[in-house]
Amino acid sequence: MHRVEKMRQQMKCAYRQMVVYGSKQKLKTLECMRDVYASMARPVKELAGFKRVTLKPGEKKTVVFEVEASQMAFLDTDMQWKVEKGTILVEVGSSSEDIRLNGVYKVIVSCWIEGQDRAFYAKAFV
Q1: pTM of the predicted protein model
Q2: In terms of CB atoms within 10 Å, which end of the chain has fewer, N or C?
Q3: Is 7 exposed, middle or buried (0-12, 13-18, 19+ CB in 10 A)?
Q4: How far is the CA of 122 from the CAs of 8, 39, 54, 59, 98, in angstroms?
């Protein structure tokens, strides 16, 4: 079995949803993630996904982000793409300074993937 398929079976994708309420015509919604502890230095925050939503005043919509486990991969000391077991902090808001929802999820098993199999951006659904 291919490593990525095995990883997908062992690890759940992260789903985060946010209900956005409109006070302006357009609102951008983003999801950032951060590894609590990693074996290598990691960015403080990484943009995981982005969705621009058009709303009428008072209107609300639910935005769902789907993050593939491979999106959390980073290059290890041997220059191999590694998805490392651990806790991931998630923040959702209109900007990295305007966080409206946060949470955590866990990667339950470490594995290595091929670079061409790495996801770089979360799917977003409205």
Answers
A1: 0.68
A2: N
A3: buried
A4: 15, 23, 19, 24, 19
The phi-psi region of residue 114 (left if phi > 0; otherwise alpha if psi is between -120 and 50; otherwise beta) is beta
What would the DSSP string read from start to end of 55-108?
Answer: --TT-EEEEEEEE-GGGG-EE-TTS-EEE--EEEEEEEEEETTEEEEEEEEEE-
Encode pLDDT of 14-25 as tens digits: 444 445 555 555
Provide φ and ψ at 115, rounded to 5°.
-55, -40
Give residue for tokens 């969705």.
51
CA distance 126 to 116: 28
For residues 29-57, one letter each, b for 16 or more C-beta atoms within 10 angstroms of the residue's C-beta and e for the rest, the string is bbbbbbbeeeeeeeeeeeebbebebebee
Report pLDDT digits (tens) over 65-112.
Answer: 888 888 888 999 999 999 998 888 888 877 788 887 888 888 888 999
